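ok so I'm stuck.
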Amino acid sequence: MEENLIKTCLHDRHVKLGALMSPFGGFDMPIQYKGITEEHNAVRHEVGVFDVSHMGEVRVKGPDAYKFVSHIFVNDVTGAPNGQIFYGMMCYENGGTVDDLLVYKVNDEEYFLVINASNIDKDVAWIKQNAEGFNVEITDQSPYYGEVAIQGPKAEETVENVLEIPVKDIAFYNFKTFPIDGEEVIVSRTGYTGEDGFEVYGSHEFTQKVWDKLMEAGVQPCGLGCRDTLRFEVGLPLYGDELSADITPIEASLSMFVKLDKPEFIGKEALAKQKAEGVKRRIIGIELEGNAIPRHGYPVEVDGKQIGEITTGYRSISTGKSVAMAMVDKPYDKLGTNVEVRIRKKTFPGVVVKKRFYDKSYKK
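replied:
not stuck anymore, here's the structure
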């Protein structure tokens, strides 16, 4: 199994830095360097950089690009200016989630889709399979692109000063393309941490140069360990935990990204039905008393009866509280509901809270 892991273009650099490496989504990825807490705090208070070259990139081009993206994506890209980015999902006919992704609008005839590492092959196959009858060309560019995410309150000054890329004018959830070293580099004001930040896409060679410059400037390298603690604290979902083929965006409490007033899209009927009739279960937040740490898969109970299970749980680094996201049955999803989390043979009291445990600090 280990033999078949894909290495990113920065792999040897992680090993050199002494990173703890581990399989993730079919890739051999750095989990931590100095330690999750230190890396987490660097991003919350200063700046950190992540290797996210494992993410997938798919380009959709052609006269029907807008029509096709609208057909496979639950969010509405209609009338968006070039350079805008949308978050949303691709769904199966039954409303289950194929993947959550970012859609970058280059223009009406070209879109750039950023998908999850563990889903690349499945997503690309699904996208191509649904492109029949549309005049579009679909290219999987995942093998070409490397990607780094520079995140934290000092991200803007770091990108401007260290990488010398002018990003001040890029608005949140927008991107620009820069000609650098004879290639087109994409820089977006996005991330997965709840902090201001940028994601930079370029060739492997360019990505290595960017990483080396950031290391020379003393920017903290960050692993997937704190990427998870950061995204979790601000209520961002992880595919496989809070979203899956069995979990719809409505059940994941992400219905704000599902635009039912736009024309037909795959899964629309099932999602409209769920929105109209309500769902039987949904993702919520839980805060536990004391220090017990809830983990993925632990049962959530009320009066000794299991009513759900934890999808992600941590002792939150930024708040010091034991918190979790969980999928629970209705009516136990209401704020203020008392629940218990079973950790091995004992249960620990908790209460249903909003699933954003820490306030995001994006640049307005």
